[in-house]
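Annex B. Sample input.
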Amino acid sequence: MPDSTNRRSNAASWWGLLFAIGGIGCNAAFFIRPPLQRMLPWLSLLFAVLALMFLLVGLTRAFGQPQVYRGKVLSVVLTVIALLPVGLTAFAFVGARKLPSSTAAPQVGQRVPDFTLSDTSGKLVSLDQLLAASPDLSSGSHGLAPKAVLLIFYRGYW
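Annex B, continued. Sample output.
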């Protein structure tokens, strides 16, 4: 049995936590549009797998050789903490695969097809009605049609 001065710290658990946080960082970096943006989901998945591997090594060392590697409790705590970002990374990776392609979505400035929706008072209003010229003498406009319409979509009832 080695003496207590030769005990080593279990750095694998710390590396696992670092890779787990890196996986979340890759998902967050996706929104700042870096170059090679399509690689970020795969990189975050790679970080999550690496995190799981390091966490497994850390737990194996802590419980398999407790006389050499100290920090049995710390390894368990780091693993539990790191499993949250790993789970979120895996959830984001799987969830992103279910999103529809945005190739058919309207682009900024593109005219959308006419539709009819109810306004806040329940009255049906179509897009063509909103873009048509309306003689409103009280506001001082001279029947000029608006150039754009801002649509706000509320999620609705749960």
